[in-house]
Every structure is written in structure tokens, then in C-alpha cells.
Amino acid sequence: MKVVLPLTVFIKEVLLGTCTGITYVDSTPLRVCKHQRILIHKTFKGLAERGKCSMGWFFGFKLHLIINDRGEILNFMFTPGNIDDREPLYSESFIERVKGKLCGDKGYIGKQLFDFLFLNGIQLVTKVKNNMKNSLMTVTDKIMLRKRAVVESVNDELKNIAQIEHSRHRSFTNVITNALSAIAAYCFFPKKSSISLEFVTDNQLTLF
């Protein structure tokens, strides 16, 4: 427990990246046990919760990430698995490093959230659901949304290289310490998932 606070301060004050005006937000599940053991799991009883992601149901926590176009982590937050992906974005401490455009998937759609972020100098850019009326979107925004996979690549590296997720934890402190260590390790990666930006005529954006 003694290392959690110093490590958090070190990451927040030293390792996090800087906002470039183009950012991406996403959440990923941190499973603490296999699906068939949810009902008998005791270590995180009252802490971990059952949630649902694109891959189905899981039991554990969520890691919410905001990154820039260079793949640098701008901020992160841990929540129980049943928390709505939009909830962390209402926290001013979570979005304090973000300005400009923030791209997310359909799970972040919401007029109330859009208005809240707009008042904080952030334009939320998402795709529209099939049952929604089409809204005008600039070519720039459409191209940036197509590159949203960059944040999913960061989550993949955190899980498969930094080992942020496993089912051998014996305490909540161990979960947080392991997760913070993985985030710190990622920040030191010499090469991160990123997109290259080049502005061209007619206010269009070409990404490579």
C-alpha cells in the first residue's frame, strides 16, 4: 500500500503526455476471474462488479483511458465493471488535460455529456447509432474516427505486453499496484501506437 500513492503521483506528474488537440477515449475490462467462477469469487466481493463490453459479460473492473494522437496516456481512471463509460468524463479531474476534439465510440453518445464537455472546451466526436438521425460531420472528424483503433492498440499493449490484467490477485491493493506499474511501464515504451497527422488544403486532414 505504501507504494501506491507515490507511484500514482509519479505517473500523474511526470509520465503522462501532453494534449495535442486530438484525443481518444476508451475503456477496457480488467477481469479478476474466469466467467464460470464469478458466483464463487471472494477476493473482490463488494468491489468488483459484473459488466458488459463488446466481448460479452465479465467480472472485475474497468480501465478508462484518454490518449493523444501519439499514443501517450493523458489520464486514466479505474471503476467497477458496471459503471457506464460516460461517467468518468463528468469528472473534471479526468478531463483536465484534454482540450480540442475527443473521439470515442458509440458508447459515449449523449447530449448531456456533449454539452458538459463543450462547456469545458472539448468537442466530443462519435459515430451515430443506426436509430439516430444523421448529423453533418466534417471530413476531418470522419477521418479521425476511422483512426480510433489507436486507443484500442494501447489497451492491447497494456494487456499483452505490460500484463495489466490477470486473475492471480489476492487483494485490491495488489490490483492497483499491478495496474499502475503496467501504466508506468507503458509510458516508458520507446515506440507507442500512434497516428501521423498532416494538414492539407480545404481544411481537410490526411492521416497515415
Mean pLDDT: 87
Report, as a whole number of angstroms, the end-to-end distance.
Answer: 43 Å
Q: Write the element-wise H/E pattern from the N-terminal end onward.
A: HEEEEEHEHHHEE
The biggest beta sheet reads: 6 strands, mixed
Roughly how much helix do the residues carry, as a percent range?
25-40%
* Spatial extent as radius of gyration: 18 Å
- From the spread of the alpha carbons, the general shape counts as globular
Q: How much strand?
A: 15-25%
Number of helices: 5
- Low-confidence stretches at least 5 residues in length (pLDDT < 50)? 199-203
Beta strands, count: 8
User: What structural class do helix, strand and pairing data support?
Assistant: alpha/beta
How does this structure look, described?
By secondary structure, the protein is of the alpha/beta class. Helix content is about 25%, strand content about 25%. It contains 5 helices and 8 strands. It has helices at about 5-15, 110-120, 140-145, 150-160, 170-185; strands at about 20-30, 50-55, 55-70, 75-80, 100-105, 120-125, 195-200, 205. The strands form 2 sheets. Strands 1, 2, 3, 4, 5 and 6 form a 6-stranded mixed β-sheet that branches. It has a two-stranded antiparallel sheet with strand order 7-8. Helix 1 packs parallel to helix 5. The longest helix is centred in the last third of the chain and has 16 residues, at about 170-185. Mean pLDDT is about 85; it is low at about 200-205.
